[in-house]
Every structure is written in C-alpha cells, then in structure tokens.
C-alpha cells in the first residue's frame, strides 16, 4: 500500500485543507455521511485515505505526535530554541498556544486530524456493514477490522493526550459532533479495547507487497498490551505480549543496527511501519507553493539529519566536512531539530553497543557540536533529498514487546525479576560485547529491576515515541523533568503536575462550550 497508490481522489476527500476549527473544515476533508460505497475499491480507497491522514505532519509525518511522546522528556531536545517545539518541550503550553499551527503541527492540528479519521471511520463502518456491493462477508469484515484498528488507535492517542474527550462510534452530523461533551477516559478505553480485539481477531498475521503498510493483527495486540499495562493489569498485559512473542511471525534481529537498515524496512522485528514514498504532493501545495518540501512526504528524517551550518565543532572545518560528505553522496541538509538531549548523551552507557546509533558526536573524523541520533538519519542526496524522504515511519517493533513482557512479569503478583530478565536476554546480549555485561541486571530485587527497565526502555527505544507515555504511566514524569538540564530551555522550572495531559485548544472550546462542562479547568490549564 505504498503512498504512490493513494490516488488524487483520496487526497481530495481526506486531506486537510483548512486551518480552521475541526467543525469548520471544508467538507472535502471528510467523507460525507451520505457516501455510498458501490464497490470494494471504493471502500478500500476510503481506508487508504485514513492511512494518508495518519501520515500528516500532525501525526506520524514529522514531529506531530513526537511533540507529545518524546519532546519534554529525557531523550531528545532541539539543537536550538524552535518555536513549534518550545511550548511542549519547555512546558509553556496554554490554550491559546495550542491553536498556533506551524507547518501543520500543533495541538489543534493533532486533535483535528485524529477526529477527522474517527469521523471517516464511523462512516466507513456503517457504509460497509451489510453492503453486498462492497464484497462478500470476508471482504467486508477485513475492511471493518482495518477501520476499527485505526479508530481504536486514534482514540487511544486521544485518551493519552487529553484523557476525557468526545467519544462517538456512530455516524453523526458535524452539528451533532459539535455539541458533544467529554466522555470519561475509562469508557473510551473500554470501546478501544473492543475495536482492537475485533481487529486482532480478523486482521491477517502479516501483510506483504503493496499492502506492506497495513497494520496487522499484532499491531492491534501491542496497543491492547500497552493499555493493560497502563491499567496495571499486569497478567493480562503479559498474556497479550506472549501472544505476540509466541504466535506472530516477528523475531528479534541479531543486532540493533539491523533493525534500522534503510534497505530492509520491513524486517522481521518490525510489527508495523507506515510506508512513505517520495514526490507525493497534496495538502501542502497551497501552503508552500513551489517548495521541495511541499507534499505529504516523510519529513521525520530531516528532523534528525544534521544541518551543516551548525557543524562541525570547529567551524573552520565546515567546508572540509561538506566536501567529505559530498564525496560519499551525502549532505548535512536536515534541520537538526531533534538531537540527543544533554542528559541522554551524558548518561548513555559507553559500553552499550546501541550508543553508536543514538549518540553520534563525531562523523567522518570531525567532532560535532551536537550528539545526533543516526538511527533515523538518511543523508543520501540521490534517493533522500531534504524534506522528501521515502523512509518508513516505524511505529511498533518486537523489542518493545519483549521489554513490556519483562515489566509485566516483574510487576505481576508472584512475578520473578530473574524470569522477567529472560524476556529481554537477547536484547541485552545484542547490546553488549560480553555475557557478563549483558547479565549485569540478573539477580535484582523487584524495585531494582523496575528501575533497570526504566533505563532499558530508554536506551533501546530512544526517540521511538514511547518515552513520555512511559514516564507518565510510571508516575515519574515530574520527578524526571525536574532533574533535567536542557541546552536552551528550563523545563525543570516550568513543568507542573497537570502537564501529563494537553489542553483542549481554545478554538475548540469557543466552538463547543460543552467541552468544559465536566472539567472547567481544561485539564488544569485554567487553574
């Protein structure tokens, strides 16, 4: 399902054309409630359209969801005081700033795109159910399962970011949606688990070829496991992790570096990646006419790629570095806006083999100003020009599941830290040169192993959009941030307990006062 297969019709129907409130969107951005699917192809294109929205800058395309799951924690920070990252990373966000959209990235953009997908999902499910024009029962079930996974994923993100929120699973008019209040998070999560279980029961174990970008049943399973863990239902979380480990076709690769091989983006460890293609232009054409980065391209590698004018540490060697890169067909032509944080770089164990992909402070013999995360680099000019990358966006991989299983085993009643270690033995063995180093966390107490998992998830899954979610569910975000020192900002001075959630954007509140009825403080931002 490479992006090139998403035809112009899909972008006309699904792309976000307006910077106005969600309820004031141009109707072309949404499937009409009167839409009728006359064939399987109609329905499949509609589902592809939802995947297209997932690739927007506000979600997985650039640093949309990265804002909320990685920035403002202890792994990444910008190499300069960037205006669109600052409110999140420095904890200065308020209702008004939530509406400020820079390059289609803001709290408001993320809110609108998640709900746009949900509205479309509800229409798809209703119009496919019992519609024999779409195909036989197995075809309809497959389409609905795909749609329910995406809807469940979006509501999961919504509860992570805002907690209580509008929730509906039927086809409503925009006016009806515009008067919805906030549904308790627990109620939404119960519905999410139903969607995800249906998806796991009915999606395939893997997709290949043109469908490689589809989420499989195991993508649904990993989100369910994460929900159980957040609920501290440790045995259920472990059981779900073991389903993935024992029944899925996925396996841990022999080395950490293999996981991030740009020429093997569907390797056996990857549970789900969103696929991207170069030169796909859509909703950004009006915003950035004639620019190379106009389009629904994957911007994320450019966020991690260095910017030559920042490097090297000895600026007199800049021309020499540029020449050395050019000789390899490479360039430092990114933004450098996502680099390893000062704290992360200083604490990453020197003997950990994962360090070379997470902390790059010397390249081609040149000392660099900032420590970069080469696991997400793509410096090649011929196939990956700036802001026009075809690199997949990794969402979930099996190493995460093994770490989750270890945590569940350690936390469940009657759990054993040494048994828990066996779930991550291979992860540790590929991360260290000797058996003794790999087994250094054997024989720990439950609390010691818990703290070891805090670090192990940090080193293994760095900047893969897990960290703030982990720190929040562990209840330690405030403590961690208050002990951080950033290069440009002072998040330790600014963070408050309510920052575990985002505010509902001011424009949404003005359009729908019902959103304040159950919580006049707007998640604490009006205190």
Automatic annotation (TrEMBL):
Protein name, UniProt field: RagB/SusD family nutrient uptake outer membrane protein
Origin species: Hyunsoonleella flava
Protein location: Cell outer membrane
Keywords: Cell outer membrane, Membrane, Signal
Entry's family note: Belongs to the SusD family.
RagB/SusD domain segment(s): 371-516
SusD-like N-terminal domain: residues covered: 79-229
Main location: membrane
């Amino acid at each position: 399902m490479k992006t090139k297969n998403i035809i112009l019709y899909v972008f006309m129907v699904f792309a976000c054309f307006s910077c106005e409130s969600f309820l004031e969107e141009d109707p072309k951005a949404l499937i009409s409630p009167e839409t009728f699917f006359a064939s399987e192809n109609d329905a499949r294109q509609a589902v592809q359209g939802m995947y297209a929205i997932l690739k927007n800058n506000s979600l997985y395309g650039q640093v949309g969801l990265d804002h909320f799951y990685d920035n403002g924690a202890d792994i990444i920070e910008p190499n300069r005081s960037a205006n669109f990252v600052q409110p999140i990373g420095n904890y200065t966000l308020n209702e008004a700033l939530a509406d400020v959209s820079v390059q289609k990235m803001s709290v408001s953009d993320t809110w609108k795109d998640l709900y746009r997908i949900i509205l479309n999902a509800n229409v798809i499910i209703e119009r496919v159910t019992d519609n024999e024009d779409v195909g036989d029962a197995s075809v309809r079930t497959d389409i609905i399962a795909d749609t329910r996974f995406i809807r469940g994923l979006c509501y999961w993100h919504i509860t992570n970011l805002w907690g209580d929120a509008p929730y509906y699973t039927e086809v409503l008019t925009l006016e009806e949606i515009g008067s919805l209040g906030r549904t308790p998070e627990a109620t939404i999560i119960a519905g999410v688990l139903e969607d995800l279980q249906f998806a796991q029961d009915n999606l395939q174990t893997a997709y290949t070829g043109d469908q490689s970008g589809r989420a499989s049943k195991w993508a649904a399973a990993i989100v369910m496991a994460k929900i159980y863990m957040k609920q501290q239902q440790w045995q259920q979380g472990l059981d779900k992790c073991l389903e993935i480990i024992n029944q899925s076709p996925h396996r841990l690769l022999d080395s950490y570096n293999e996981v991030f091989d740009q020429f093997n983006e569907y390797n056996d460890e990857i549970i789900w990646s969103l696929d991207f293609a170069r030169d796909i232009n859509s909703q950004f054409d009006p915003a950035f006419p004639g620019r190379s980065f106009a389009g629904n391209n994957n911007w994320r590698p450019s966020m991690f790629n260095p910017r030559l004018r920042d490097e090297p540490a000895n600026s007199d060697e800049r021309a020499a570095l540029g020449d050395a890169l050019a000789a390899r067909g490479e360039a430092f032509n990114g933004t450098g806006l996502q680099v390893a944080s000062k704290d992360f770089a200083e604490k990453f164990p020197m003997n950990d083999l994962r360090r070379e992909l997470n902390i790059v402070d010397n390249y081609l013999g040149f000392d660099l100003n900032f420590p970069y995360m080469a696991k997400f680099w793509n410096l090649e000019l011929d196939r990956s020009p700036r802001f026009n990358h075809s690199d997949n966006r990794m969402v979930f991989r099996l190493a995460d599941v093994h770490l989750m299983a270890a945590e569940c085993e350690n936390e469940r009643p009657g759990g054993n830290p040494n048994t828990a270690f066996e779930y991550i033995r291979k992860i540790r063995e590929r991360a260290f040169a000797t058996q003794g180093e790999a087994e250094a966390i054997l024989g720990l107490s439950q609390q010691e192993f818990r703290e070891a998992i805090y670090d192990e998830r940090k080193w293994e899954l760095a900047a893969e959009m897990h960290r703030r979610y982990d720190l929040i569910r562990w209840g330690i975000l405030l403590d961690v941030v208050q002990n951080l020192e950033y290069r440009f900002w002072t998040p330790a001075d600014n963070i408050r307990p309510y920052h575990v959630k985002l505010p509902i954007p001011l424009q949404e509140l003005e359009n729908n006062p019902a959103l304040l009825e159950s919580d006049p403080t707007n998640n604490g931002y009006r205190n």
